[in-house]
Each structure stands twice: as structure tokens, then as C-alpha cells.
Amino acid sequence: MKVAILAGGLGSRMGEETELRPKPMVEIGGRPILWHIMRYYAGYGHRDFVVALGHKGDVIRRYATDFAALRGGHLRIDYDRRSVETQDAGAEDWPMQGWTLELRETGAETNTGGRIRRLREAIGRERFMLTWGDGLSDVDLNALLAFHAAHGRMVTMTAVRPPPRFGHLELDGDRIAGFREKPERAEGWINGAFFVCEPEVFDLIDGDATQFEAEPLERLARDGQLMAFRHEGFWQCMDTPRDRARLEALWASGRAPWKIWN
């Protein structure tokens, strides 16, 4: 199953951190948060990634190719085909073994829904996982997928309980009955952005200006096609330098909840 990651936002609330790089490239423990997200999915066996680029996407492109080159061994660059290959690296413990990474340019000004829509060709007519490139969690991905397969609806959203400053969910059992993005006052469950989607979701996105958290999710909620997977454990997005400092402290402590690899 492919994992789609949105990595093209401006990250304006991160201040100086995102002046020279996109937010998914801001580092936790010396590695971009995007790397941590992919390592987490890979820990559950999901190693086929499609990343939506936008603001300063060239930084992610360079990192991806440079990281492959740093594996060691021989390096072959075909300038006509614009390909980079490593050969005879020899390291059996290479952490990205079995990974595929497809970087898709989705436009600097494209909204979240538009970015997802532009991944349609890369994902195809298959169920896929979706998340943003700025949040970490210890959500049980196996349980999330099992929940989605059991209810048979179009989209599952992971619902979490951080401070009330994000999109607010109104739940009727496990069905999401209403969705309000960032109300002034909200309590309870909010959008944790670890999704499982059926490919029909692409049909609900009009174009580049569509915000996924607005009309598409609101329509899915009205139609009874948006379900909530409740996660009571760790979840933290990285919206501000303060959020990054918290994630950095968790990593430095050796008790980062999302670190499920050795």
C-alpha cells in the first residue's frame, strides 16, 4: 500500500526554521521530520512513498538523492535519463532497504486538496495511506488499516486529543458526523492527519485551490463516509518552534514514542 505524504506547505509559523527549507526538512535529532515519518511507516512494513512537493521542494529533492549517495559503494549518474543509482553498497543494515520514493511536484501555491489530487496518477486506483509531513505519532497502523477495512467507508481519519487549536470532530459512535477546521473554541477529538483513503476520494477534490480539510472532508462527514479511528496515545504536530523543541527533547531523552526501530 502506498503512503502519500504532503510536504509542500509554507510552514510560516516556524519562523527562521523554514526560511531556507520546507517544514518537513526541519530536523529532529539531526534528521528531517520527513525521515522520521517515513521510518515510522516503514516500521509497519509500508515502504512505498509518494511525496507531494511544493514550497522549496528542491531541498527535499537534493536530500533524497544525496542520502542515496551517502549509502556508500559506487554511484552511477545517467544525465540523459536524469537517474542516480548506487551499486555494490554492501550494507545489509541499510535502513531504507526495500523503500521506493517518488517525489511529485505539486506547485508552490497549491492547497492540501490540490496536492492530493495531483498524486492521483502516482497512486492509481488503490487504497492508500495519507499523512502530512509535519506530525509524529505512535498510532497503531495495523489497527488503523484493520478498522478501515472493517467499516467499508471511503476515508478513515485518525482522531487524537491534543490542545484545542486544530480541526474539531463531532462523533456519532465511530462515524464522523461533523467537521470544523480550527474553531475558536473546541474540545475533545481533533484531526490527527493519519488517514486511510479509497481512491474515490480524488473525485471529491475540484482543483489546486481546494483545501482537503474543508469541502472534501465536510462532504464526506455529511454523507457518512468519514470514520474516526480513535488514538489515545502520543501525537504531536510541528507547527511552531515550541513544538519542534518538544519533539527534540523527546528524541534526546531516548524515549521518543514514534521510534519503533533499532
Please give the radius of gyration in angstroms: 18 Å
Binned, the helix content reads 25-40%
CATH class: Alpha Beta
CATH architecture: Alpha-Beta Complex
Number of domains: 1
Overall mean pLDDT stands at 89
Count up the helices: 7
What's the arrangement of secondary structure elements?
Layout lengths: L1 E6 L19 E2 L2 E2 H11 L4 E6 L3 H13 L4 E5 L4 E5 L12 E6 L6 H6 L2 H4 L4 E5 L2 E3 L3 H11 L3 E6 L7 E5 L2 E6 L9 E8 L17 H8 L3 E5 L4 E3 L3 H13 L9
Parallel strand pairs: 1-4, 1-8, 4-7, 10-14
Antiparallel strand pairs: 2-3, 5-6, 8-13, 9-15, 10-13, 11-12
What does this structure look like?
The chain is α/β, with parallel strands linked by helices and 262 residues long. The chain has one domain: Alpha-Beta Complex (Spore Coat Polysaccharide Biosynthesis Protein SpsA, Chain A). The chain is 25% helix and 28% strand. The chain has 7 helices and 15 strands. It has helices spanning 33-43, 57-69, 112-117, 120-123, 141-151, 215-222, 241-253, and strands spanning 2-7, 27-28, 31-32, 48-53, 74-78, 83-87, 100-105, 128-132, 135-137, 155-160, 168-172, 175-180, 190-197, 226-230, 235-237. Strands 7-4-1-8-13-10-14 form a 7-stranded mixed β-sheet. A two-stranded antiparallel ribbon has the order 2-3. The protein has a two-stranded antiparallel sheet with strand order 5-6. A hairpin with a 2-residue loop joins strand 11 and strand 12 (175-180). The longest helix has 13 residues, at 57-69. It is globular, with a radius of gyration of 18 Å. The two termini are 23 Å apart. The mean pLDDT is 89.
